[in-house]
Amino acid sequence: RNEFMASLLDLQILIARMGVHLHVTYPLWSLNEREQVGRILKAALVDGEIDSATATRVAGVSSATGTKLIRKALEEGLLNKPSQKGPLSLVFDSKVLESYFPKLYQDLPV
Asked: Which of 58, 63, 64, 84 has the fewest CB atoms nearer than 10 Å to its CB?
């Protein structure tokens, strides 16, 4: 059981699963967009929450492109922002749970 929980919460594995989720779920986004949004999601995961300037910096893009990437992630429910100027945080909802934590519900009785 401890091994299961450790693997479930291993940060590098979770980050990799987040990247796979972006590539599988958003094939119409460019490869660059998926990778840049992935870097933003990783920063939000590691730091708990980040501001828009940090998101733009970790994505390695201009301010205008950063704003577009953040908007995409917010519209898709990947990030949450409590207010216009508030921090960005990662969203763990039903749309991503199976991708991020594939074995979470595996042993539950139906």
From this structure: 84
